[in-house]
Amino acid sequence: MAQGRVIAVAMDAEHRFSKIEVPEIRIVAGLGVEGDAHQGVTVKHRSRVAADPTRPNLRQVHLIQAELFDELRDKGFAVGPADLGENVTTQGIDLLALPRGTLLRLGRDVQLEVTGLRNPCGQIDEFQPGLFKAVLDKGLEGELIRKTGVMTIARAGGLVRAGDAITVELPPPPHLPLEKV
């Protein structure tokens, strides 16, 4: 069982690109981060609401691995926790390599199920010019690699703080690769 830790937590009641780093967030089962603009059973992302507001919200809690910030720093970008809109910044777990359905346990009580990859949008270049290209890569087979974290749904709620342990429980095989959600 892989283990990592929470580096930072963030939320924002408004739909903005970056979130606000806070001392703790409360995860509500079936809804996401209490008080966050993306909390809910159905989609909250503006473009998805416009397309079909009745679709299930597979993007309740967004996680990014802090290792991405180091990679971006090496490319000349200054990016830190909450800047890219994530609720939880992690360290020590390759989130992008997890299969769909992985269960992440944060702290004592919180359980998040990985639903897919966050698909970066053009707003990222408004935050820092050139960042959009820097968070995309090509794999060995020429496939597009999205590096802006994973999206999850809240299976069990509770408080999450920086320093909390994260354990990973893989789903039973066959493991399905992550796709954008």
UniProtKB/TrEMBL annotation:
Location of the MOSC domain: 20-169
Domain of life, per lineage: Bacteria
InterPro entries per UniProt: MoCF_Sase_C, MOSC_domain, Pyrv_Knase-like_insert_dom_sf
Entries under Pfam families matching the protein: MOSC
GO molecular function: catalytic activity; molybdenum ion binding; pyridoxal phosphate binding
SUPFAM superfamilies: PK beta-barrel domain-like
PANTHER family reported in the protein's UniProt record: METAL-SULFUR CLUSTER BIOSYNTHESIS PROTEINS YUAD-RELATED, MOSC DOMAIN-CONTAINING PROTEIN
This protein's name: MOSC domain-containing protein
